[in-house]
Amino acid sequence: MINMAKADLYRLVRIKSIYLCISAISVMYLINLITNQPIIITAGYQTETLSDSSVSIDIAMLSCNFNYYFLMLFPVSALIISDFSGGMISNTLSSFTSRNKYFAFKFMFTQCLSLVLFWAGNSIYYLLHLICYGSGSSAPANEFFRLLLIQTPIFIAMISLFVFLAFLIKRATVFNTIMISVPILYSGLIRLLMLVRSTKSFAAEHLVTYDLTTVFERVTRLSSDTKYLFEAETASFLLSAVMFLVGIRYFNKCEAIRE
């Protein structure tokens, strides 16, 4: 597994997608620091925190962390789907005693890399915002990182879903197309239902509430809805576990090599 980790790290430093991801994160935060306004590249609803003038800009930006949904697609695709291209996976699997170990390694390695990008991006942003605007315009460090820690299980669940779907789809173009299209179509469905009086209540109470954009936003307001926070955290842990267990079972039974 050490050799596998070295090979994946070597591959990462040689592919453009990881640098594209880091560049996108940097530009997103740079624009925020210049304009002192939260940057949203999401497709869903995200209004409550952003419209609340009592929330500091760095916390408002933290509530926009669904942005990482799109940014994390590229490294996930590079770490997992690239093994399926050109029959590389047959050579890779030969160094493992079982597919279980291979899947578990890929799952954990992708999670670790994604968490490093997630925490490093948010931490560096907070430090730069504090330097640029001072403590008077920034949230206390303990509050910022407490909320970031609360968001972490949701982020892990999101990456878990990415890993499972990457093993399921096996094609980078199809994977990226589906994952980019789904939140856009979901958001379009919400907006459409919100226009119809008979379905507006359903859309507001269910579809918007459990939209991942809304989840990232609402968990930044811990004191306002602890019941929702508990539900979101519990669902995140369950989703991560289910994606891991179902993923292992599927990978053991599927045809790993796609010609």
Sum up the overall morphology in one term.
Answer: globular
Secondary structure class reads: mainly alpha
What proportion of the residues is helical, as a percent range? over 70%
Strand tally is: 0
Number of helices: 12
- Tally of discrete structural domains: 1
Give the H and E element order. HHHHHHHHHHHH
The rounded distance between the terminal residues' Cα atoms is 25 Å
Which regions contain 5 or more consecutive residues with pLDDT less than 50?
none
Q: How big is the Rg? A: 19 Å
Question: Biggest sheet, in brief?
Answer: none
Q: What is the average per-residue confidence, as pLDDT, rounded to a whole number?
A: 82
User: Which strand-content bin applies to the residues?
Assistant: under 5%
Structure overview:
The chain has 259 residues and is mainly α. It has one domain (2-253). It is built from twelve helices and no strands. Helix 8 packs across helix 9 (172-194). The longest helix is centred in the middle third of the chain and has 35 residues, at 99-133.
